Amino acid sequence: MRELTDEQVERLVAAAFAVRERAHAPYSGFAVGAALLDSAGRIHVGCNVENASFGLSICAERNAVAAAVAVGAEGFCGIAVVTSSEPPATPCGACRQVLAEFGDLPVVLANVHGARRLMHVGELLPAAFAGGFLHRTPG
Ligand code: THU
Q1: Among the listed residues 1, 50, 10, the one whose alpha carbon sits nearest the alpha carbon of residue 30
Q2: Per the domain annotation, does 1 fall within a domain?
Q3: Residue from 2, 12, 31 nearest 116 by CA
């Protein structure tokens, strides 16, 4: 696992900060921005998009992953997530599982007050379900 450079962390946090402004969160009032770095150095962003049918709301992290995959991005190197929480919020369980699909990525948790915390997907979701299990069915 390659770690993020300080410059990459700054770029990711800035991008997550900016996209957070576009969050559609009229029900919770909790805006989230996420920025995902690929191996080509490109950043892919996502914000949370809520719905009047609450269960249809989509998280920022999963939107960032979907946006990246849709443009053919590969080799994800890390993700930043910006919220207003103190301490900075960690990704929800569903987003942890989606991120785990792409490896033990560094996850920069940041908030609008300037706090930062570096974690990894494997730490956030130990013993994740992974594709390897699909091929280990006896019989
Ligand atoms: N949310 C995210 O965007 N990412 C997470 O990992 C946790 C929660 C969003 C979903 C909803 O729009 C709002 O935050 C409150 O749960």
Answers
A1: 50
A2: no
A3: 12
Q: Is the pTM of this model over 0.85?
A: yes
pLDDT tens string, the chain, 139 residues long: the values are 569 999 999 999 999 999 999 999 999 999 999 999 999 999 999 999 999 999 999 999 999 999 999 999 999 999 999 999 999 999 999 999 999 999 999 999 999 999 999 999 999 999 999 999 998 778 7
**139 CA to middle of ligand 1, Å?**
40
* Structure tokens belonging to residue 92: 């929800």
| Cβ count near 82 (within 10 Å) | 29
Q: Look at residue 111 and tell me if it is in a domain.
A: yes
Answer whether 77's CB lies under 8 Å from 37's CB: yes
Using the atom order of ligand 1, give the atom closest to the CA of residue 50. Answer: 12
Which CATH number goes with the domain that contains 108? 3.40.140.10
